[in-house]
Automatic annotation (TrEMBL):
Belongs to the cytochrome b561 family. Keywords: Cell membrane, Electron transport, Heme, Iron, Membrane, Metal-binding, Transmembrane, Transmembrane helix, Transport. It comes from Acinetobacter johnsonii. It is a multi-pass membrane protein. Its cofactor is heme b. One of its GO terms (cellular component) is plasma membrane. GO terms for biological process: respiratory electron transport chain. Its main location: membrane. InterPro entries: Cyt_b561_bac/Ni-Hgenase, Cytochrome_b561_oxidase, Di-haem_cyt_TM. This is Cytochrome b/b6 domain-containing protein.
Length: 168
């Protein structure tokens, strides 16, 4: 059995990480932060698109995805819970960001293209707070995910971390 993920999934994994880091570092009100706002919104759009592309590839390559030996039932529950919330965040955080942007302005351009915005958004303060909270929660989950990969590598000494790296 193969012990590494298919290359398209590995590529999307690391591109998603780079985009998430870029979006997190450029957070703020995109209507007043100029180029940082452009990067933040464009990155959020790309993360949202990559989420669906990633789901498609996971489905297409489901038989090639390595199976890791799980140590106990708690680890299974934790793995499935964190994975579910990571994937949910890749979808929900950009949607909340789009709703937040729609509440801030009637018109926003990314790379000279007008974004389709909602005409009416109720509870804009709550949506902006939810977007920020969910984004921070997502970053915490990413950190937990990275710590788990390092624990697998250094403590359990299995191939979980290596399975998401490019092989020579």
């Amino acid at each position: 059995m193969k012990n590494n993920y298919p290359k398209p999934i590995i590529i999307m994994h690391w591109i998603t990480l780079a985009l998430v880091a870029m979006v997190y570092l450029t957070a703020g009100d995109p209507t007043i932060t100029d180029w940082k706002g452009q990067i933040h919104v464009a990155g959020g759009i790309l993360i949202f698109i990559l989420f669906f592309l990633r789901l498609s590839f996971v489905f297409l390559y489901r038989k090639s995805i390595p199976k890791t030996e799980i140590i106990n039932s708690y680890q299974i529950v934790l793995f499935k819970t964190v994975r579910f919330f990571l994937y949910l965040s890749l979808c929900i955080v950009p949607i909340a960001g789009w709703m937040t942007l729609s509440s801030f302005t009637d018109n926003f351009q990314v790379l000279s293209l007008n974004l389709p915005l909602l005409s009416t958004v109720w509870g804009s303060d709550y949506i902006a707070d939810a977007h920020q909270f969910l984004g921070n929660l997502f970053i915490a989950l990413v950190g937990l995910h990275a710590c788990a990969a390092l624990i697998h590598h250094f403590i359990f000494k299995d191939n979980v971390l290596k399975s998401m790296l490019f092989k020579k």
